[in-house]
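User: two proteins, same treatment. go.

Assistant:
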Amino acid sequence: MAVGKNKKLGKKKGSRKKAADPFLKKESYDIRVPAIFPVKSKSAGRTIATKTQGTKVARDTLMGRVIEVSLGDLKEDTQDEAYRKFKLRVEDVNGFNCLTQFHGMDLTTDKLRSIVRKWQTLIEAHVDIRTNDGYALRLFAIGFTKKHKEHEKKTAYASASQIRAIRKKMVDIMNKETASIDLNQLVDKLMNEIIGKEIERQTQAIYPLRDCLIRKVKMLRSPKVDVQKLVEAAGGAEALSKMSGALALGSKVVTAPASDAGTAVDVKADKPTSAASPTPAAGATTAAPAAKPAKPAKTDAKGGDKKGGDKKGGKAAPKGDAKGDKKKKDDTKKKA
């Protein structure tokens, strides 16, 4: 018979296991941003990873993670620039802190779509650069033509020669602004949009432009990271150790104050343990439990034993003697 026909078939007791919560096996890590970003807390949030079990180490799962953070969260009072997203890559794990480094930049999709207009020309350019500290990056610039003061036409299209001249100017300015600088200086220029403003200023003689932006920065190659510099950029070893201690509090036992009931709660296991009954000291002998008293025999309602007793509490009389007594009484009645 098919399993689907009979409801009892296919159902076995104990075959279905209870689904365990996967987050019980995970730990929380703090994401530390580079020192170039002016956020006060130097934290971009938290990420989780599975605890170290056997050959699977939690640090290996965290290394190389890329976190995307809005510039509005990395600078104070800059909600108007939240459309610019920075990518941070985890380069080292110090306790419960993930030390990150700049890995790229991008614009949100809604920002790019909002600046596109009809009756204009879109001009793009890209260039590969190399910083002094060995980082190879690719920058993508974008700009849009606009009408000047004495413009009478409905459209603001640039000619092919003007587009080539503007694109060449974009490449020259990006190479000039990124020459002989390190990665931190480049990130500072990207946050303040210095390169885009310079492109818009120098191309006015060719054709007026608007919304000149570095729309994307892509990391091509990066050198080996100096862990000591990352630790110093994150606030130093002492600050990181304090943060690690605060995040590791979830694996310790938190005791209740003296005024409360004498119980302690194990945060890791979530099992209450009695604080009023302390564990015996090492080497101390514990007294054996007292022997339980013997249970009394069960008796009936009138005091007699339940087994083998008559109704009045005496021993049960044999059946043969009861019949002999009845015959003697009958004989005495007949003689009388």
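Protein 2:
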Amino acid sequence: MKSFFLQNRIRSGVIIAVILLLLLITGSLWAPDAFFRAYWFALMVWAQLSIGALIVLLLQYLTGGEWGRAAAPILRAIACGLFLLLPLFIPALFALPHIFSWTQIEPGVSVPVLVNKLPWLNPSAFLVRTLVYLTAFSVVLLLRYRDPISTVAGPFLVLVIVMISFCSADWMMSLQPTFYSSLYPFLYFSGAMVSTFSVTTGIIAWMQLKGMMPSHPELLLAFGKLLFTSVLFWGYIVFCQFIIIWTGNLPDEAEWYIVRSEPAWLWFTLLVLACHFVVPFCILLSQDVKKNARQLLAICIGLFAVHLLEVFWMMRPTPGAGFNASPFDILLPLVIGAGWLWFVLGSREIVLLASTFSPHEAHES
């Protein structure tokens, strides 16, 4: 089974790297604004997934449980996918003016609320803070094998939660620099949980279907419940943020929803709400669906695909810009995702997990 993961690994890795390099050169020369916005969007999708897996992994160290023992190798592999993304941050950090409008803040010209944020929203401070976030996440990942990890999992979890509270505001909320919401880090966290449990549950279901681990409907049920809970939590946070902003009725905050309710974006907003919350909520109410590996895998694939749209919905709408999308918004998440998947599936944790059971043993179980 080990050869299944490692076959042609070097060749496929080189192909992905070459494609990404060609896209980087072509996009930065041809349409740098559209390219680097899409590049940042792709980075945020896969970074959020890795950070979410790190949080769930630390929770598993603290709480234990059968689902945690089964998911721990997968969560470690997904979390370590962040190491692949670290060098990919470099091109984006050199292209901040193409991504963030706050790089053009000018005292006496820009609106006062932006001028007041200038000590925080400036390229130098942003670069330093990003290095701090990535360093903190990397240190926690490097120490994940510490013995006993459970004694430091609590402080590590607090550190990671504090880091995502800041990095979600810097990396995503500041794309619309006049907007502020105290619930935005929770929205980021809830999305990370949906993506993490979609991928983890999908991998467990896929491995059972392929005979790479014993068929275990009760384990699938446990993961299905976690996936259902993450969807419910996301819907709750989205509703809470909307109610708070609607009640406050402050122009700088309300504009975030006004843009997403304009004709150019309204259909997209309804699509995200329906497919990221209403539909999976209704489907996952069924116990039988949560115990069926094939059906659960289909739900996980669809939910993660919609999660990509949800991240796009959080990041892209801009006042006065209409529905601004480009082919790069499709190509870059796929290419970076292919590299991320290549890295994760070839990790030691996944290879060892796959080699634990032979197909004959799994089917007999």
